[in-house]
Amino acid sequence: MALAHIRVHYTEKITNEELAQMVGLSVRQFEKRFKALFQTSVHQYILRLRILRSCDMIIAREMQFSDIAITLGFYDQSAFTAKFKQVMGVT
Question: Could you give the CA distance from residue 14 to residue 86 in angstroms, rounded to a whole number?
Fold first, then answer.
C-alpha cells in the first residue's frame, strides 16, 4: 500500500509518518523495514523515482529543465540539477 502510494504521489511531499500510518507501523519500524527491503531510505527511493522520470522527460524533450524540475516536485532548477548530479553522477 505504501509503495503504491509512493509510485502515484512521488512528485508530492510524502512523509514517513503518512506512509507508516498507512501500513499500521510506527515510523521507526516502517523506516527500518523499508530500508531492509530496498537497501535505501524512503527519501532516497523517492528521489531516485523523480530523477529516473526526469531522464525519460529529458530524452523525450517534453519540457524545459526548469519545468521538469517543478513538475517533479523540486524547489527549482538548481535543486533539481544538484540532485540529478548526486544520483546520476553527471549534470
Answer: 20
